[in-house]
Amino acid sequence: MRFGLSEIGFPVSARLAVAAIFFVNGALFGNWVARIPAVKEKLGLSEGLLGLALLAIAVGALVAMPVAGVLISRLGSRGITAAGVLGACVALPLVAVPGSFPALVAVLLALGVLLGSLDVAMNAQGAAVEKVYGRPIMNSFHAMFSIGGLAGAMMGGAMAALGAGLGAHFLAVAALFGALALFAVQYLLPSEPVGAGEPAFAVPDRAMFGLGIVAFCVLLGEGAVADWSAVYLSGTLGTGPGVAAAGFAAFSLMMTAGRLAGDRLNMLLGPVTLVRLGGGVAALGMSLALFSGSPAFALAGFAGVGAGFSVVFPIVLSTAARTPGVAPGAAIAAMSTMGYFGFLVGPPLIGFVAEMLTLRGALGLILISSAAIALLANSAARGKV
């Protein structure tokens, strides 16, 4: 007997399809991150050149996000999602091909364009499915991205430990997750035309700007914790490398757990209260990490930051998609661009401030940004799903 998503029923099949796309996106990213050292070794790159190469992904994504918003508004999110996820699967093995730094930058720039476009499009699909469901489900999609990232990182680490070549590894990843994506895109929601009077490009108004600041603050904090938590634990608190690595692990695990519970909490508390609570929990967690002086309490603090941040960005995107008079794809693109800009500038900003103060003082910026999220929580009040 043939069994597929179509037998499960609409809109469940669409929800499973979008969840699969989020998972694939996270898995691709996790596999890539795990093999960055191998790329560095293959081309003999210095830390500075590697940093410039990695910046190409971010630049590609930032450029692509607003363009993707326009394309989604005109063509719909289904086609852009399919092109983004399948294109990223094809592009990943190409990262193993370049034999020079300029060629690597070109490939990573293209990969960033595809991933940035996919990020906007899959969230637009998620918002559309959420609208059909009539209740919050966006956090569950972002949980699948986190789970995919963890699975991809574990897979990539295992392949590296086995001594697998970059080309063979990335081809296997492309085949495995490309097949899953190809199956899933068949069940995405049909594309909807832009409503009358809805612009294809969103310039944030006063209400959207507050929401964008929330997106900026939460992703600034996420990027800073990812890059600096281990340095803080090992350098400032004097822990060993194992404990230092556990800081981001605790953050990531609580981020995933929070997103799994986020939709139920959203229905129970409402988006404004949940965003305010998330910002407050993150601020308390960062305070614990910075002022306790104990590695154990610092780990608990970073876990608290992950729990607090976990629910905020999905709510931002869900709220933006319901902005009156603005196409959902355009609104999501605007929030994604502002948020991703925070993710990009957060780590170097922490490093710059640490040079003037201390790393503990610089990480206080995460405490400030978390408090700002709580203060701007009313930006999440824009109707109900």
Describe this structure in a few short sentences.
By secondary structure, the protein is mainly α. The protein has 15 helices and no strands.
Outline the structure in words:
This protein has 385 residues and is mainly α. It folds into 2 domains: 5-187, MFS general substrate transporter like domains (Growth Hormone, Chain: A, Up-down Bundle); 206-380, MFS general substrate transporter like domains (Growth Hormone, Chain: A, Up-down Bundle), CATH 1.20.1250. It is 81% helix and 0% strand. The protein has 15 helices and no strands. The protein has helices at 5-8, 12-34, 36-43, 47-75, 77-94, 101-133, 138-161, 166-184, 206-236, 241-269, 271-291, 295-310, 312-320, 328-356, 359-375. Helix 2 packs antiparallel against helix 6 (101-133) and helix 5 (77-94) runs antiparallel to helix 6. The longest helix is centred in the first third of the chain and has 33 residues, at 101-133. The chain is globular and about 55 Å long. 53% of the residues are buried. The mean pLDDT is 86. InterPro entries: MFS, MFS_dom, MFS_trans_sf, MFS_Transporter. This is MFS transporter.
